Amino acid sequence: MSSRRSRASVSEEEINELISRLQTLLPSARRRGGSQASTTKLLKETCSYIKSLHREVDDLSDRLSDLMATMDHNSPGAEIIRSLLR
């Protein structure tokens, strides 16, 4: 089991690097500029951001479905949308 544990372990340096990279991806962290947030706060912000992205995707999917339902399926616009979804 110890060999299994050593393969799965991640160094503190690797964790810090991943946290730094994560911070660069979050809009709220970018607005803060160079100031560092605690890891806990950063992870909470990450979860909130991912949830907001899911809501946005759901909203856009609903809007696209509504748009497709109102379009003539043979229209050039419908064909463009279908080709983008492929």
What is the domain tally? 1
Fraction of residues in H or I helices: over 70%
Oligomer: single chain
Low-confidence stretches: none
Tally of helical segments: 5
Note down, in words, how this protein is organized.
One of its GO terms (molecular function) is protein dimerization activity. Pfam families: bHLH_ILI. InterPro entries: bHLH_dom, HLH_DNA-bd_sf, PRE. 79% of the residues lie in helices and 0% in strands. The protein has one domain (2-85). The protein is mostly helical.
Q: Which structural traits does this protein have?
A:
86 residues; mainly alpha; 0% strand; HLH_DNA-bd_sf; BHLH domain-containing protein; transcription; PRE
